[in-house]
Design brief:
Distance between the termini: 39 Å
Helix content: over 70%
Strand content: under 5%
Shape: elongated
Largest sheet: none
Number of strands: 0
Structural class: mainly alpha
Order of helices and strands: HHHH
């Protein structure tokens, strides 16, 4: 059985998000923004995992599109944590690179189902 790249990467991304949340809550005493990041960041992997058990192509794409939305929201929270001085440049660059990679993967997978707003 070949490895499922998006499943593995989304799991590893979720694990990094969990560790970052732990760091932010324990060392920076930041709970609100990091909790939002935790929720959306781990949801990426949960939606990708659920897509693996999809009953149909539309169900698969629905879950993958939901993962894409969660990755986009995670990027927002990461940027806000960085701008709010909770993440230094090195920390931000490291996790943001992973987030961008997730976004690229998910956009490539969901491209056939995306359309421009209003269409």
């Amino acid at each position: 059985m070949s490895p499922n790249v998006v499943l593995e990467k989304s799991y590893q991304f979720a694990l990094r998000i969990v560790r970052l949340y732990k760091h932010l809550s324990e060392t920076k005493k930041e709970y609100v923004l990091s909790k939002r990041m935790l929720d959306t960041g781990t949801s990426v992997g949960a939606h990708v995992k659920a897509a693996q058990e999809a009953e149909s192509k539309p169900d698969f794409f629905h879950e993958m599109n939901a993962a894409l939305k969660m990755a986009t929201k995670t990027e927002f929270w990461l940027e806000l944590l960085h701008s709010g001085d909770f993440l230094d440049q090195r920390e931000f660059d490291s996790i943001h690179t992973d987030c961008e990679e997730m976004l690229k993967l998910l956009k490539a997978i969901t491209k056939p189902t995306r359309r421009t707003p209003g269409n």
